[in-house]
Design goal:
D-Maltodextrin-Binding Protein, domain 2; about 45% helix; five-stranded mixed β-sheet; about 350 residues
């Protein structure tokens, strides 16, 4: 998912992500120890915000300088220029750079699932399945993960994207929804949060992509391969802290919702729907490297922008061992914890 839903003021990142006091652009802080510079959008997902709140990064000896990311492509360029260490936003721009030969490594997760197809109430009443999309016009954002998973499904049904279905790209999900409301398109691919908002405006969700492609990946965390090799234990500690933040989220639902509603200036019910509803996206740091590789190969096979003719093997640019070492340390420290064991089972299945 290239761009995340715009939700208004979340508060200053310096307030939300106060692990690092100094918002410096240099790699070392004044004490001489390294500061990990991490890009996040709107404060990051709930489990990362809670990781900061609970001081888990500090507990694991990691100093983080959080920097706001509006455009993931800019963040990836900043990593290559040495001005940023980690990007947590989007997936496809990262895969595009890898396909072009940039030596990035995806080492942790952020968001999976959370894409839906919305339409007008009239179209929804006549919707019967994928076959209803034939001959229709779609509004999408550029290289959206849900969109491309859906295109693969359509092709498998003999419906050829770009021939039997036409696409118009828009800069963000707000514009996608507006195009649908104005009648410029028949359907739109959006995120779950936006789908719920659109229903309040008379639109309808007719398909959750995860119902056909369970646990498909979206935003991942990425860094230069060389930096991970040079500072491997720091990355293990960084991910370990996030796993603890995820555990806190799952074990303290009410407290987590209250805090996130406060810092994001949103209603508690909206936060609860985003994180805990049956249709909500999946937010956790599990890397799901097999699913990343599958999606990369899907983009290559579909001839997506930036992937035509690449010979890069994605398996050389995903690393599940960072998460593995981090969660195994936690399993030793807190054996038989239900949340950790469930996450570990997902890790074993997806990597």
């Amino acid at each position: 998912m290239k761009k995340k839903l715009k939700r208004g003021a979340y508060g200053l990142l310096a307030l939300l992500m106060a692990v690092s006091v100094a918002a410096c652009s240099k790699k070392d802080n004044d004490s001489g120890s390294r500061t990990l510079r991490v890009g996040a959008a709107d404060g990051g997902p709930g489990f990362i915000i809670l990781t900061n709140k609970q001081n888990y990064f500090k507990d694991e000896g990691v100093t983080v300088d959080w920097q706001n990311v509006g455009d993931p492509t800019t963040a990836l360029a900043a990593i290559q220029l040495g001005n940023l260490d980690v990007n947590t936003v989007a997936l496809v721009p990262t895969l595009q750079q890898i396909a072009k030969g940039v030596d990035f490594t995806i080492f942790a997760g952020n968001r999976s699932e959370g894409g839906e197809v919305i339409t007008t109430a009239e179209n929804a009443a006549n919707f019967t399945g994928l076959e209803s999309f034939k001959g229709k016009k779609f509004a999408v954002i550029h290289l959206d993960t849900a969109d491309y998973n859906l295109r693969k499904l359509l092709r498998e049904q003999g419906i050829i994207p770009g021939v039997d279905v036409t696409y118009t790209e828009f800069p963000d999900y707000v514009a996608v929804q507006e195009a649908l409301k104005k009648g410029a398109v028949d359907y739109a691919v959006t995120v779950t949060e936006m789908a719920r908002a659109s229903e309040k405006q008379g639109l309808a969700s007719v398909l959750k992509v995860r119902d056909l492609v369970p646990s498909y990946v979206c935003c991942r965390q990425v860094a230069l391969t060389s930096d991970i090799k040079e500072h491997r234990q720091e990355y293990v500690n960084y991910v370990k802290a996030q796993i603890k933040g995820y555990q806190y989220l799952k074990e303290n639902e009410d407290a987590a919702i209250t805090y996130l509603a406060e810092v994001k200036a949103r209603e508690k019910d909206a936060i609860k729907a985003d994180l805990f509803a049956e249709a909500s996206a999946i937010f956790n740091p599990e890397p799901a490297t097999k699913k990343v590789a599958d999606f990369y190969n899907l983009l290559v096979n579909e001839g997506a922008d930036g992937f035509t003719g690449t010979t890069v093997d994605i398996n050389a640019h995903v690393d599940s061992t960072i998460f593995r070492d981090a969660i195994e340390e936690i399993r030793k420290e807190t054996p038989n914890n239900a949340v950790i064991e469930a996450l570990y089972a997902e890790f074993q299945k997806n990597n």
